[in-house]
Amino acid sequence: MKKILILLSFLALCLTIIPAFFVFYGAASWNTHSTIMFAGMVIWFATAPFWLGKKKNG
Amino acid sequence: MSAPEKNSVTERLDALYEFDREPVTQDKLQGAGSFIGMYAGEHVAGTEFVIGPLFVAHGVAAIDLFLGLLVGNILAVLSWAFLCAPIAVRTRLTLYWLLRKITGPYLTFVYSIVNALMFCFLAGAMISVSATAIGLPFHMPMPQLTDLYPTSVSWVVIVLVIGALFTSLAILGFEKLAHFAAVCSPWMFLVFVAAAVAVLPTLGCNSFGDFWRVANEKIWTGVPLAGQSKFTFWHVMFFAWFCNMAMHIGMSDLSVLRYAKKWQYGFASAFGMFLGHYTAWIASGILCAAALGSVAPGPIAYLGAGVAGVVCVVLAGWTTANPTLYRAGLALQVATPNWKRWKVTLAAGMVTTTAALFPALVMRLLDFVALYGLLLMPMGAVIFADYWILPKLGLKRNYAELAGLLFSWPAAAAWGISLLVVFMLPIEIFFKGLPGWFISVFLYTVLSLLIQKKSSVIPASEA
User: Fold this and answer.
1) How distant is the Cα of A52 from the closest Cα of chain B, in angstroms?
2) Domain ranges of chain B
3) What residues of chain B lie within 8 A of the CB of A38, using their CB?
4) For the structural domain made of B25-366, what CATH number should be given?
5) DSSP assignment, residue B116?
């Protein structure tokens, strides 16, 4: 289960960063980029809290 | 000044920090990965949305920005690695307990209060940052670079609501929020980068080969906005070096690095510097230029990343403000006898929210951050001199503890006089830290020499 969550989180980060480069090269519109970023954000916060940063410095 | 009996300030302070009174034990030490994660997370924060645009507003030239940030951040990393970390791994004490041994509880009390007030103002700036994002859907007029006072009723209402919300969450708990902040960091960093990349075409940059030309002509043009002073390479370099002066040269991060297995883990700060204070500052500067010089974080983040950008600004403000509010409450608790923690945090939240009403706090963030580091830095210089220089002169470390002093005059004089001198120097605030450190070290060493040689409390040969 943890591996699936990590995989989904990684996907979310890809959805956050990659569309911006499509906009940069003129291959996607700004609206598409912001919509995909939004989806990436939802997936990130639905998955990352369950495996990331559980351990903390004292 | 000495007194054998306990006093209420000392007792309250000690009780507050009781849980980390002893040096860290070997089994609690942590690997390099913990420090890389912590520094990377801590330095991609709400302030990054403001600092990058302020460099643009101050007319930094592109070459000055890139080189200034490079040199300044390297110096900051070296300060963590060579000044703070070696003392941290040798003493394995928090800043509070080490200061208490060197300066006595009274001076540590004064330091705690100054620190708490600075924390309140920093958290206030983060509330203002979040307000610029929350205000977007309400068509709130954004504060401008020259605004000092509240600009509209909607600004006041939104700041008060956010202040109340952040304060309530800080009262409810810290651990879960600290975990949530760690979760936000990688995503927030990518939002910074993505937003900047997405707006580059609007500045006329359609390939990476164009970037340097656009950077010079459209972003870091070397021409300050109206009413702003001109920043040079030296401003950028010293700001990048000293914006965390309280943490490295000021030794606040002793409390963190005392968990490091080796002093070399101080170099982990490079991850925070080059992700947050290099990449994120450049990214937010690009966003500012694309927004035609607007420095309000909410609108510029929306311009680059849409709703995700707005959420990023709110979370960046929140995750920075909350631990800051918590630490302010902790430090203020010593001055509020018998108050519950929630009540102290509430008081800190009220101070913070009041401060946040004034846009000047955000619009003059560079000056505030420089002042914050400068005010606390002399005590780091005192720790440095006490640990490395005093034993070489045949003097004792931790003299206040050894002699049972409540107040160390050499440390107090080094703190007060060095600040007085640097504030009188006719140079900008960004440059005052360096002479201030040497003055503090010199004063503390000389005054310790006079006091310890004269004192009959402890024989000077007992090193």
Assistant:
1) 6
2) 25-366
3) 306-308
4) 1.10.4160.10
5) H
Question: B158 near B138, Cβ under 8 Å?
Answer: yes
Cα separations in angstroms, B63 against A24, A29, B243, B432 = 23, 31, 20, 24
Size of interface A-B (CB pairs under 8 A): 93
Q: Is B211 on the interface with A (CB under 8 A)?
A: no
DSSP secondary structure letters along A19-51: HHHHHHTTSS-HHHHHHHHHHHHHHHHHHGGGT
Cα B204 from Cα B226, distance rounded (Å): 24
Q: Please enumerate in sequence order all residues whose Cβ is within 8 A of that of B141, keeping only pairs 6 or more positions apart, or say none.
A: B151, B152, B154, B155
Say yes or no for a CB contact (<8 Å) between B190 and A13. yes
Closest residue, chain A, to B305 (C-alpha): A34
What pTM was estimated for this model as a whole? 0.90
Higher pLDDT, B116 or B340: B116
Contact B187 A48 (CB under 8 A): yes
pLDDT digits (tens, 9 = 90+) for B132-145: 999 999 999 999 88
Two structure tokens written together for B124: 């206030």
B204 and chain A in contact, CB less than 8 A: no
* Cβ-Cβ contacts under 8 Å, B316 against chain A: none
Average pLDDT over residues B418-446: 97
How far, in Å, are A43, B94, B246 from residue B243 at the CA level? 34, 21, 8
Residue of B nearest to A37 (CA): B308
Please judge whether B195 and A20 are an interchain contact, meaning their C-beta atoms are less than 8 angstroms apart.
Answer: yes
- A41 CA: distance to closest CA in chain B (Å): 7
For B62-82, what is the mean pLDDT?
Answer: 98
Asked if residues B384 and B83 have their Cβ atoms less than 8 Å apart, the reply is: yes
Query: What is the rounded CA–CA span in Å between residue A43 and residue A56?
Result: 23
Which sign, positive or negative, has the C-alpha torsion B281, B282, B286, B289? Answer: positive
Looking at this predicted complex, what is its ipTM? 0.94
Q: Above 60 in pLDDT, residue B3?
A: no
